[in-house]
């Protein structure tokens, strides 16, 4: 057994050593919502292991523009894992092979020289493709509009001790609130269900005192909106939790079901 | 789905319990039992008004579960739209969690054969050999019927496939039913998960042992 320092050195070398690679990208191209899509194959040379996945598409797009072609349309904004825009299905997994990582934070050291990488948009009836890898995820906005808020102005941030919140609830609420609404849960679910997203929004407020007055009406109207938008139903396969870049727990869905069942019989209206 | 699933789980407990009475006839238990314990249990289930009403509720439960199951399956299948060229596969979920409709269909096909082999002759056509145990009450010798049916290797194979399907259906279904009903306490969920795995395996193995024991004549009518 090598000593700890030798092992640590080996790990650093193994994971962090810089290398260049040549890749083949198979990317879904679709001109607009109604057009027939197809895969296009692009060889990409000299990709640095230190690039992010989005930078590789930037690199390819530069070349496509120079060649007078149409650059690949893809969503992105913060490029630091907090906005949830960079949604794409990479080699059969939302946001690519790394656990708890968004596409923008996926580094190319996840791949080897010679790899073929298949890139597809989210596939769900409720998320129609607008162009290439860009899908219309406004259904999520409408879900939040259906009840994912507190109706009164809660004013400025108050003193930390002014409203007592149980620490476990605060932690669980905070964990649920870390959802970035990227839609990976819908993309991975065999039923294209938005239950994990919805449950994150419902739990986030249901666990805090400010969320209590509208707790029942919120869950009822948000679930109704989910069905209206054409998302499927949850059958607890667990795929959503496994691919969520923010590791939102599937137990939130059970909490939402409990609130829903309870609200169904006890709601005021 | 969750409610009817839990109801059917409750039914399985009773069904496997009563049928396991056939094992009283095992050589190292009570070789002179000759199916008496089982026949009496089956007779009891068919001869009181309460159990006959429960039987109707059971049929309703099955029908509801099957209708809901297929509705859910059909609706959910439509939600994807275009299929992925590379799918997530087993990286996010178990194959049996994704195959509840298929596993349920296998159980359903089995149920048709099962009901026509045992339930129809015992409750509708009454063409089973009679047997009495000294107190003047004549009853169906279902034990004998089981033995006859399970001499066919094809039927035994069908039963084994059905038991395997049931096992996988329950490996997912047991815990999923509680999650559907809103259980979100981590301790309970961990407990229910283990309980579910145990239940699925024990029930399916017990059921599977019945055709096997009779086919290989570990137990047989004298
Ligand atoms: C007769 C044929 C059957 C069919 C077609 C069928 C079909 C289904 C389907 C499609 C589901 C939902 C899938 C999912 O949640 O992923 C399901 C769930 C379930 N089934 Fe069945 N099933 C059958 C028989 C049974 C039997 C015999 C039992 C148990 C004794 C059973 C127990 C359950 C349970 C506990 C669930 C989970 C409920 C939930 O997730 O809320 N099923 N079944
Ligand atoms: S671009 Fe914002 S999360 Fe990836």
From TrEMBL, chain A:
Q: Which residues form the 4Fe-4S ferredoxin-type domain?
A: 170-199
Q: What Pfam families does the database record attribute to this sequence?
A: Fer2_3, Fer4_7
Choose any GO biological process term that the UniProt entry carries and state it. aerobic respiration
Superkingdom of origin organism: Bacteria
Under InterPro entries, the record lists:
2Fe-2S_ferredoxin-like_sf (IPR036010), 2Fe2S_fd_BS (IPR006058), 4Fe4S_Fe-S-bd (IPR017896), Beta-grasp_dom_sf (IPR012675), Helical_ferredxn (IPR009051), SDH/FRD_Iron-Sulfur (IPR050573), Succ_DH/fum_Rdtase_N (IPR025192)
- Single annotated GO MF: electron transfer activity
Cited PROSITE patterns: 2FE2S_FER_1 (PS00197), 4FE4S_FER_2 (PS51379)
| Signal peptide per UniProt | none
The coenzyme or cofactor needed here is: [3Fe-4S] cluster; [2Fe-2S] cluster
PANTHER family documented for this protein: SUCCINATE DEHYDROGENASE, SUCCINATE DEHYDROGENASE IRON-SULFUR PROTEIN
The text of the family note is: Belongs to the succinate dehydrogenase/fumarate reductase iron-sulfur protein family.
Q: What is this protein called?
A: Succinate dehydrogenase / fumarate reductase iron-sulfur subunit
Native species: Cnuella takakiae
Species lineage? Bacteria, Pseudomonadati, Bacteroidota, Chitinophagia, Chitinophagales
From TrEMBL, chain B:
Entry's InterPro entries? Cytochrome_b-558, SQR/QFR_C/D
Q: Name one GO cellular component term.
A: membrane
Q: Which parts of the chain span the membrane according to its record?
A: 43-70, 100-120, 154-174, 195-219
Q: Give the domain of life.
A: Bacteria
Record's keyword terms, sorted: Membrane, Transmembrane, Transmembrane helix
NCBIfam families under this entry?
A: sdhC_b558_fam
State the name under which the record lists this protein.
Answer: Succinate dehydrogenase / fumarate reductase cytochrome b subunit
**Where does this protein come from, organism-wise?**
Cnuella takakiae
């Amino acid at each position: 057994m090598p000593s700890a320092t030798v092992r640590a050195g080996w790990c650093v070398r193994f994971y962090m050593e810089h290398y260049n690679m040549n890749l083949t990208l198979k990317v879904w191209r679709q001109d607009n919502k109604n057009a027939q899509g197809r895969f296009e194959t692009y060889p990409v040379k000299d990709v640095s292991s230190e690039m992010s996945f989005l930078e590789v598409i930037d690199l390819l797009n530069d070349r496509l523009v120079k060649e007078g072609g149409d650059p690949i349309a893809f969503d992105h904004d913060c490029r630091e894992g907090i906005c949830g825009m960079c949604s794409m299905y990479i080699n059969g997994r939302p946001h690519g092979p790394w656990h708890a990582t968004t596409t923008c934070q996926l580094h190319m050291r996840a791949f080897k020289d010679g790899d073929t990488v298949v890139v597809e948009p989210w596939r769900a009836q409720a998320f129609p493709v607008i162009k290439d890898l860009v899908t219309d995820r406004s259904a999520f906005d409408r879900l939040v509009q259906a009840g994912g808020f507190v109706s009164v102005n809660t004013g400025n941030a108050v003193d930390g001790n002014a409203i007592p919140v149980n620490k476990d609830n605060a932690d669980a609420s905070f964990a649920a609130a870390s959802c970035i609404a990227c839609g990976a849960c819908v993309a991975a679910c065999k039923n294209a269900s938005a239950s994990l997203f919805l449950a994150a929004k419902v739990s986030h407020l249901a666990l805090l005192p400010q969320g209590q007055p509208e707790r029942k009406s919120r869950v009822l109207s948000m679930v109704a909106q989910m069905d209206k938008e054409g998302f499927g139903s949850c059958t607890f396969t667990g795929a959503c939790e496994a691919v969520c870049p923010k590791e939102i727990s599937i137990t939130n869905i059970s909490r939402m079901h409990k609130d829903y069942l309870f609200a169904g019989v006890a709601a005021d209206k | 789905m969750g409610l009817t699933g839990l109801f059917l789980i409750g039914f399985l407990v009773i069904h496997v319990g009563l049928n396991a009475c056939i094992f009283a006839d095992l050589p190292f238990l009570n070789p002179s039992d000759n199916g008496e314990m089982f026949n009496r249990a089956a007779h009891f289930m068919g001869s009181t008004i309460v159990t006959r009403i429960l039987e109707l509720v059971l049929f309703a439960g099955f029908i509801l579960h099957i209708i809901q199951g297929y509705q859910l399956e059909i609706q959910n299948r439509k939600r994807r739209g275009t299929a992925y060229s590379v799918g997530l596969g087993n990286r996010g979920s178990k194959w049996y969690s994704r195959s509840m409709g298929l596993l349920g269909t296998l159980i359903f096909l089995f149920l048709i054969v099962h009901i026509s082999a045992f339930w129809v002759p015992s409750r509708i056509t009454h063409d089973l050999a009679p047997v009495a145990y000294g107190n003047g009450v004549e009853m169906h010798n279902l034990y004998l019927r089981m033995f006859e049916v399970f001499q066919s290797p094809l039927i035994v194979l069908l039963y084994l496939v059905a038991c395997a399907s049931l096992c996988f259906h329950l490996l997912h279904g047991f815990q999923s039913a509680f999650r559907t009903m809103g259980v979100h306490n981590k301790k309970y969920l961990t407990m229910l998960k283990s309980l579910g795995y145990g239940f699925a395996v024990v029930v399916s193995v017990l059921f599977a042992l019945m055709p096997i024991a009779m086919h290989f004549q570990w137990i047989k009518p004298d």
